[in-house]
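Think of the structure tokens as a kind of shorthand, similar to the way a musician reads notation: each symbol stands for something richer, in this case the local conformation of the backbone. In the example below we present two proteins back to back. Begin with the first one, reading the sequence and then the tokens, and try to describe in your own words what changes along the chain.
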Amino acid sequence: MKQVVCMKWGTVYGPEYVNIMWAMCRRNITGEFTLICFTDDTTGVRPEVKCLPLPTLDCEIPPDVPGKWPKIALWGKDLGGLTGTALFIDLDTVIVANIDNYFTYGDPQDVITARNWVRLFGKHGQTSVFRFPIGGNSYMLENLQVAPATISRKYRFEQNYVTAGVRGGIKFWPEKWTKHFGLHCMGIWPLRWLRPPFLPHDAKIVTFPGPPKPPDAILGQFTRETPHCTRSEYWKWMMVQRRGGDKRWRRLLRRFLYPTDWVAEHWRE
């Protein structure tokens, strides 16, 4: 049985993100699979999804530390009674092609992640999508519990801790499989004014670390603070911000975004 795992806590993502994840898996996984959602609120989640209580860190991460440290609870010895291997996928991810190979690539005992595209030099992992043997690396959680403040402040982001902490090192998916929307699809900022984001050839999964998120990309809106409008209207809006004394106006140059039809095609129930 292919096992896909996701996490939903707080109010950042509604149940529609979980339901869309199930639908994308159904369209892009051959045969039977299970989507397990670890969550603190099952309201609105479709019945095909197996919802389990959030695993706990049993330690406190300082509030000034960035990153998604609750994900490290997945590395515990017992994970809701699950066994075997699991493929974790962040909810703000778009599956665009068949992902059967994510379940069979490499050794079942490997920890396999996407490469951190922002840190190209060095073997840094990006944990929007990763596969791991359930309970096979429980020391990751246990070590954090011994010194949560020291470890979290040292690595800042949980994916840096995963990169450095997994014994024997992490492995990577083939680079063409997993792409970053901002870097690989939007491209450098002048191109964002000339064409909509494109879907890289042979990509299977597109991740959305940071803004924009899939529903924003569909609209053509980088964040909720920027308008979705035509190119000329956006330029006029940006100039208004500049005349108003907004020193961030140069950053706004990079935040123009055309509506992205292929995200709408794939990110749906």
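Once you have a description of the first chain, move to the second and do the same.
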Amino acid sequence: MAEEEEKENLDAEDSEEDSDSEEGGKKKLSGKKLVLFVGAPVLVIVLGLGAAFFFGLLGGGEGEEHADGEHVEEAFDPSAIVFYDLPDMIVNLNTGGKGTKFLKLKVVIELDNEEAILIVEPLIPRIVDRFQVYLRQLRVADLSGSAGMYHLKNELLRRLNAAIPVEVKDVLFKEIIIQ
């Protein structure tokens, strides 16, 4: 009998707490409601992205499709890529009068075809000049980290494409030494 009274007292306390929480204006979400309001939208988004990826609406689709629906792979032709080694460069960096720092740079450029080399070779002095002028203004801090290397690569590519009438696809570093 005492056990029944304790159960009734506990039930009464629980109902009082429920009424207090409702009166206070703060309601707690039950586990079912939480899953419904949070889990369901996340599930819908994940399924939608998966379907978009599967049907090729997002990246990851390789090749192209013709109008008749035939899937065609894009052919990679390594013989179409042409690399040309620029002369090695050694420049002193801007240290603000605090000693001397040197940069040794070996660069390879990527061109569209073999004929582009015939156009680039006579323009090497112009390319070296553009590089030297830019590199001499750099500080050691400008070349630190991957962000510094990325910025240097983009700036050299921009200067190359401005200096010569052939499009340079990429600038590749063979060697970078700061001493």
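Compare your description with these statements about the second chain. The mean pLDDT is 79.
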